Amino acid sequence: MPAPAPGSAPTPVNPRSRVLVASLMGTTIEFYDFYIYATAAVLVFPQLFFPSSDPTTALLSSFAVFGAAMVARPIGAVVFGHLGDRLGRKKTLVVSLLTMGIATFLIGVLPTYAQAGWVATALLVLMRLAQGFALGGEWSGAALVATENAPSGKRALYGTFPQLGAPLGFIIGNGLFLVMGALLPSAAGADPSQPSEAFVSWGWRVPFLFSAVMVAIGLWVRSRLVESAVFARTRESGGVRRLPLATVVRSHGKQLVLGTFIMLATYVLFYLMTTFSLSYGRTAKDAAVPGLGYDYTTFVLMMIFGVLFFAAFTLVSGPLADRYGRRVTLIWITVAIMVFGLVWVPLIELGTLGVLLWLVLGFTLMGMTFGPMGALLPELFPTSVRYTGSGISYNVSSILGAAVAPFIAVALWETGDGSPWLVGVYLSAMAVLTLIALLLGKETRHVSLDDREATADDAARAPADSPS
């Protein structure tokens, strides 16, 4: 780092522990809020907000609202990216977290369709859009806090900490739903795959209301951050762009497209293994469209076991990407995802052990592909537009992947007469698109995150960064 000018104060530096905790804490809260909606979208929202004589239609309606938030995410990426690239990462992260927290809390106090008709459904959609809008600004800011403060040679490792918020948020959110289910058991003789009357009446609200406590903790942690030195130097040198969106579209369009498709397989795998699998696992074997027939508690415990591998291999992926490069690491993982999609059904047909292996393998691959994204996407863009560029790529991919994945998966599940083999083919096809994007891209491991050093630094390292 250049020495400060005589008489000037040195740029404040965030302690490494504070960087890791702040990036991890914020995304954990954001993903917790997102997951509890996803769980409620399967368990109770179809009957509370989307009444229909056809359970599948109600479920698809609930998933459609789940996907609507993904449409709002790119809008959030543009708005929060503009603020983050002009005003700084810290302030923007505080606003995005507060927005998510308020929307999630309000879902917990909404009237149901039986109480307010379609007004209740409209309010749920509005809050869901606010959640997506907030998450659109959260991820890129958290990734930048981690990577822009990372020591040399450990950028991918630091970038895994905001990614770790996804499995932790899943465990906390679904763990709380399990606790509520245990405290509010179904009556004797009731269908064990369905939540109890008390849970449907008010128990589902508790996880949403509890988010207020988590948000308060997250705001306290983030309020203690100082701006990253990389962004501070860009601002001091006059490198801040007046319209970051215009700059990134005009000058970095290729990176936007590549980043979007590099994330595609990750998103599809992510939401198939969480949202779709929960619906498929709980559906009775003798239903019109048969599922695996597990009760809610058993299947969620199996999912949480798989998510432990998600967390572990998210951390494992960082050192691998730092050592071998982001591109090479992700190419091999993407090929593995393609194969996983093709062996999806044979694994499930092995019985409970096979289903558990399916979950473990799926979540392991999820950790391996998700971890390096925290470094790779920010590395595609210069500091002056990094918040906007990485956020747009990450969140536009959410439309192409996550927004439609549960919806398409249910349709393919029905088409396959209860067998999800077409769902696996869909995953493999999306992995092919990601593989193409990776092959067209370049290695970013040695790219400088400092705009003032990037030109000379990249030129010096050009041979090392050429596609291998």
TrEMBL record:
The Major facilitator superfamily (MFS) profile domain, residue ranges: 19-445
Bilayer topology term: Multi-pass membrane protein
Membrane-spanning ranges: 58-80, 92-110, 116-135, 164-184, 204-221, 256-276, 296-316, 328-347, 353-371, 392-413, 419-440
Location of the protein in the cell: Cell membrane
Pfam families in alphabetical order: MFS_1
Domain of life (superkingdom): Bacteria
PANTHER family reported in the protein's UniProt record: INNER MEMBRANE METABOLITE TRANSPORT PROTEIN YHJE (PTHR43045:SF2), SHIKIMATE TRANSPORTER (PTHR43045)
Name of the protein in its database record: MFS transporter
Organism from which the protein derives: Streptomyces venetus
